[in-house]
Amino acid sequence: MNAQAQQLLTQLRRRYTALSETLDLTVQLGESLDRGDRTSFGLLLTMRQESILRLQASDQAIHTLCASLSDDMQQKWQALLDGGLPEDEEGQLLARQMAQNRQLLDRLLPLNQRLEQGLSTRG
After folding, report:
1. Which structural domain, as residue segments, surrounds residue 75?
2. What is the pLDDT of residues 85-105, one digit of tens each?
């Protein structure tokens, strides 16, 4: 695997970690909201914000890295983003990590929406 692909994979894995932390904290936030536990809710909210900041930093690092990719790597990356099939082993690794990230994001978004709805109804 070339150095650029390895850096991209590392950043995608960091994004996965941040997504995983955010998902876990979102679940815990919902539970504390259901219990009416304001103390836990405040602590978890702060922790979740830190996790979201790590997620944003990871996304920024991915965008910065993508801007500096070689033309060949940019074409491979764009093809993966467009849903194309990976052409080689490094593409398969990147595509697999992207799919794992997407699965977590697909679980996180509805939970986040429910949490927001719960907050708005409790006003």
Report:
1. 3-122
2. 888 898 999 999 999 999 999
